[in-house]
Design a protein that fits this description.
globular; 0% strand; mainly alpha; Cytochrome Bc1 Complex, Chain D, domain 2; 285 residues; 2 domains
Length: 285
């Protein structure tokens, strides 16, 4: 009789242990599922951060059409490009928006790859992450445009970028010439600025900073895209204002972190950028 009770007690204990183990396994599975659901879609990588191949490939493999072989173009896009190309910040064409891409795809994949690698308008070279290789840029560019155009076979890297149409080289030459003219103009403006300073009036007084902000700056500074401080948000501007207005002018003119020089518009004069900066910080200054 005692032996029977002993056996029954052991079986009951084993049953409870098995039930507890099953419950713990279910709890672990539920926690893992919740963690997976809460995992961020992507991260923004800004210039200067070491987040090239290692972070870009963390998401695993994707289809060969999107990734250029073993390179995960989708993951690179989620880490580096989506902040602008999912929101339209700074005039960036949104992925999958055929109307926004219509004129661009007519230039061909080689030209789009060249723009991705070397920068174009407000977009910095390699999305602001110089650690990305040519092959990674080819893969992420393919992922970016595949909803709106037929992507050629990948693997060209530098060769594909070198095939950009001749007019692109002409555009760059014209941009360089314009930049040289701007340098000359800036020198003249600098002399004028000194005269204005002597009179006690800022050199950019009278320039419509609001109009420049609305055309160039608001895409990021009204949305917070790419980590840009939003106009009027005192908490976001507090540590920046402590650096002084001259530092803010310098960052606006020469670029800082993910923000391109002169908001990506090199045709702006230094005084125009200063006027736009004054308007940007006016609510919190």
């Amino acid at each position: 009789m005692k032996f029977s009770k002993l056996i029954m007690g052991c079986l009951a204990t084993l049953g409870l242990t098995a039930s507890a183990g099953t419950a713990l396994a279910q709890d672990d599975a539920e926690r893992e599922a919740i963690a997976e659901r809460l995992k961020p879609v992507g991260e923004l990588c800004v210039e200067g951060e070491d987040c090239g191949t290692a972070s870009a490939s963390a998401g695993g493999a994707s289809s060969s059409a999107s990734s250029g072989g073993d390179i995960d173009g989708a993951s690179i896009y989620n880490n580096v490009c989506m902040a602008c190309h999912e929101t339209g910040a700074a005039g960036a064409p949104i992925r999958g928006d055929e109307a926004a891409w219509a004129d661009r795809v007519e230039k061909g994949f080689a030209t789009l790859l060249d723009h991705s690698m070397n920068g174009f308008n407000a977009m910095p070279a390699r999305g602001g992450n110089p650690n990305l290789s040519d092959a990674e840029m080819e893969a992420v560019t393919a992922y970016m445009v595949e909803p709106v155009m037929d992507v050629p076979e990948l693997g060209g890297g530098d060769e594909a970028a070198a095939e950009a149409p001749a007019e692109e080289a002409d555009e760059k030459a014209q941009a360089d010439a314009a930049s040289q003219e701007d340098t000359t103009d800036d020198s003249a403006e600098s002399a004028s600025a000194e005269e204005s300073a002597a009179d006690g009036e800022p050199s950019h007084a009278g320039i419509d900073g609001e109009a420049i902000f609305n055309q160039i700056c608001m895409a990021c500074h009204m949305t917070g895209a790419a980590g840009a401080p939003v106009r009027g948000e005192a908490d976001q501007w507090a540590p920046r204002l402590e650096q002084g207005i001259e530092t803010l002018y310098d960052h606006s003119i020469n670029g800082f972190n993910a923000m391109p020089a002169k908001g990506g518009n090199p045709s702006l004069s230094d005084d125009e950028v200063k006027a736009a900066t004054d308007y940007l910080i006016a609510p919190v200054r």
